[in-house]
Amino acid sequence: LATTLLKDLAHIALEKRRFKVVVADCDGTLWKENCAEVSPQALTLDSHHSHLQEWLVELESRGFLICLCSRNARQDVTRVFQERDDMPLRWSHIIESRVDWLPKSQMLSQNAERLNLAEERLVFLDDVCDAHSAATGWQRLGEFYRQSRGIATVF
After folding, report:
1. Strand, helix or coil for residue 136
2. What confidence tier does 11 reach under pLDDT thresholds 50, 70, 90?
3. Taken in order 15, 71, 143, 140, is the CA torsion positive or negative?
C-alpha cells in the first residue's frame, strides 16, 4: 500500500511537469530489505516494488531523469543492480547516483548540482520520514514533504 501511495502521489506531482528528475531511495523503496543485511538474491521484490520500478523505467523513457539517493555502501547497491536480472530498473536507467553515508539532503543537493538543475526540479521517493531526515530539515507540506531548499519528497 505504501509503495502504491508513493507512486500515486509522485504521479500527481509529475503531471504538472514542474519536476524533471525523480530521485529514489533504495532500501524499502526499490526493494524491501536493507541491501547491506542480505544478499542481492535474498532481497524481496514484491509486486509493489516491481510496479514502482516499472513506472520509473516508463518515466525515463518519457524523458525524465532517474537518480538514486541512498544511505548505503555503494558496493552493496551496485551489487544488487548487477546481480538481480529480475528488476525492471537497470543501472543504465540511472543517470546520477549518490550512495553514501552523508545526510540525504546533502546528497540530493549534489544530485541537482551534478545535473546542473535547480533543486526544485527534483522529486524524491523515500519509504520513511525518520528522525535523521527530520533532523536534516524535512518539513511536512500537505501530501508531500519538502526539504527547506525546495525538493519535493514523497514518503
Report:
1. coil
2. low
3. negative
In angstroms and rounded to an integer, the radius of gyration of the C-alpha atoms of the chain is: 14
Distance of CA 62 to the CA centre of its chain: 17
Query: Is residue 82 very low, low, confident or very high in pLDDT (cuts 50, 70, 90)?
Result: very high
* 52 HSE (CA, 13 A, CB side): 28
Q: Model-level pTM?
A: 0.77
The residues, ordered by sequence, that sit 6+ positions from 30 with a Cβ below 8 Å of its Cβ are 24, 49, 52, 53, 87, 89
Q: How confident is the model at residue 133 (pLDDT cuts 50, 70, 90)?
A: very low
CA–CA separation, 28 vs 16, rounded Å? 27
Helix, strand, coil % in the chain, rounded to nearest 5: 40, 25, 35
- 142: cell is 500537505
- Give yes or no for a contact between 35 and 79, defined as CB atoms under 8 angstroms apart: yes
| 55: pLDDT strictly greater than 70 | yes
C-alpha grid cell, residue 132: 535523521
